[in-house]
Please model this.
Amino acid sequence: MSLEKARKYLDEKGFKDRIIIPEHSSATVAEAAEALGCEPGMIAKTLSFLVNDRAVLILAEGMARIDNKKYKARFGCKAKMIPADQVEALVGHDIGGVCPFGIYDGVTVYLDESLKLHETVYPAAGTDHSAVRLSIAELEQCCGYPEWTDVCKSAE
Model:
């Protein structure tokens, strides 16, 4: 069902043909990079947080980690990931396939500056066996031109 929501959303944006369904799992950055034959950093991982009891998604470069000081300065609270058993109910996709495509209304999406290290990135497409090949400009377009943020530590 999540793949179908993502597929419908991407079709409406003109990017349905970019969906990739690899044979092997893409649930983790390492698995996705192996399944897609790309560098781990090119995986646009989607991190799900609660900010004032609202779901927030942050897409970041695959090797990036949240910088707690930057996060608190940006959102005014400590970084609190959505508990795994609540992600699907709050976002619309389950762990391993969380992406910004076909999510519930009211979920805010941010793109972290760390993504700009790559020309092409691969976010998930709703399941743990899916990805979407997009340029950074296309990712912005697909996400409705969300706000860029800088809440990750350097991947170096």
